[in-house]
Amino acid sequence: MLDGNRRWAREAGFTDVADGHRAGAKKIADFLSWCREADVEVVTLWLLSTDNLGRAPEEVEALLKIIVDVVDELAAPENPWRLRIVGALELLPADMARSLKAAAARTEDRTGMEVNIAVGYGGRQEIADAVKKLLLQHADEGTSIRELAKILDVDHISEHLYTSGQPDPDLIIRTSGEQRLSGFLLWQSAHSEFWFTEAYWPAFRRVDFLRAVRDYAWRHRRFGT
Question: Does the predicted TM-score (pTM) go above 0.85?
Fold first, then answer.
């Protein structure tokens, strides 16, 4: 959870909070490199929430442009990772949604680390969208609501999440000192470990990442047992 860009910008003396978003965007490639070194297989980066879309129009417009630019950079041929765009893309400007999809498509044949780019993402929205997809699928197959109710289980919903086919996250890191999920991967994080740091995202360092991984390695995960 790449949090604290705006606060970092204000405390650094910038008058435009977009400068914080730009600084945060520059940190992403470094972070993904650290993840590769640690043999991480799947990373999800939350770049834009559904709540963020309610900010001042000029801030949202600037942030959307920064996101498109950084995703294009991440999709560059010299990078080994595969991108997946996760979120309610219909909430975004159509040209932005097309650009993001096109960037991800350019990485489809890569075999490296999977990188989810969460844009226009909200955990409640994701679950609602998964249920809608599930209902539409069974409606097309002629399944009645009563029949569906008899067979419906958590796996049916999981199959329709934005992250379908991927493992649930082992570790969730949030920067900026906030200690809450704010809707991030609500379904998938049922058994995740959490690590919070006071550092704002643009100031997040490799040593901070290594501390998070080391702390996670020391924990005993019981999974309810």
Answer: yes
